[in-house]
Amino acid sequence: QVQLVESGGGLVQAGGSLRLSCTVSGSIFIRSTMDWYRQAPGKQRELVAVMSLGGSTNYADSVKGRFTISRDNAKNTVYLQMNSLRPDDTAVYYCHASPVILGGDYWGQGTQVSVSS
């Protein structure tokens, strides 16, 4: 059974940093594009960052230059380093895995990030 377990959320002041982690059980990690999404209260879930199997990355315009996605295939873990955090970054952050060949759609349970002004 595939599980995605996130950690690293919390409360931080504006300008601070947090690093989110998402560890994937099962064998899909090395075969998957990994993404981070977020959902703020009253808003739709939005894509924040993507890392492909080959290591290429894409970011939402709102986080470019501040957030960095990375992955450690040996640890089945994807990270989201978030710097220069702003109050509008406050949201529940979700890890997402998309196996490239097998298909499917896997989500973590979400971790709360709150940024105070």
Topology of this structure?
Layout: E1 4-7, E2 10-13, E3 18-24, E4 32-39, E5 46-51, E6 57-59, E7 67-72, E8 77-82, E9 91-99, E10 106-107, E11 111-116
Parallel strand pairs: 2-11
Antiparallel strand pairs: 1-3, 3-8, 4-5, 4-9, 5-6, 7-8, 9-10, 9-11
What does this structure look like?
The protein has 117 residues and is mainly β. The chain is 0% helix and 52% strand. It has no helices and eleven strands. Strands 2, 4, 5, 6, 9, 10 and 11 form a seven-stranded mixed beta sheet that branches. A four-stranded antiparallel beta sheet has the order 1-3-8-7, with no helix packed on it. The chain is globular. The termini are far apart. The model has no long low-confidence stretch (mean pLDDT 95).
Q: How far is the first residue's CA from the last residue's CA?
A: 40 Å
Number of helices: 0
| Helix/strand order, N-terminal first | EEEEEEEEEEE
Fraction of residues in helices?
A: under 10%
Q: Can you tell me the residue ranges where pLDDT is under 50 for at least 5 consecutive residues?
A: none
Average of pLDDT: 95
